Amino acid sequence: MIRAAVEAVLARLDRVPYTLHTLPLRLAVANVFWSSGMVKLQDWSATLALFADEYRVPLLPPAIAAVMAATVELCMPPLLLLGLGTRLARSFCSAWSW
Fold first, then answer.
1. Other beta carbons within 10 Å of 77
2. From CA 42, how far away is CA 19, in angstroms rounded?
3. This prediction's pTM
4. What are the C-alpha distances in Å from 3 to residues 11, 14, 39, 40, 68?
5. d(Cα 89, Cα 26) in Å, to the nearest integer?
6. Coil, helix or strand at residue 27
7. 3-state class of 55 per DSSP?
8. Distance CA 63, CA 67 (A)
9. pLDDT tens string 79-96
10. How far are the Cα atoms of 45, 49, 72, 73 from residue 52, in angstroms, in the given order?
11. Domain locations in the chain?
């Protein structure tokens, strides 16, 4: 009884395109990155202080690290929503997995 109900639900979900399943997840992750980038832009002096005192990124001056972080956090959400670069990101993730 329960197995048949689960199989019926899964069959219905299989009829929905995969991109529609992933869109809410992409939206959620993009929202987190966008919000973080906007917070960095709201108070740039606090962002620089955070990168200088808390994050202490090695090999990069705090100002350059802050600009790079804000740029990525504001430029990547639209690409994430459109699904651009996902295979490239997956290749990086699979290359670093042990």
1. 21
2. 33
3. 0.72
4. 12, 16, 47, 49, 50
5. 13
6. helix
7. helix
8. 6
9. 888 888 777 766 766 665
10. 10, 5, 19, 19
11. 19-85
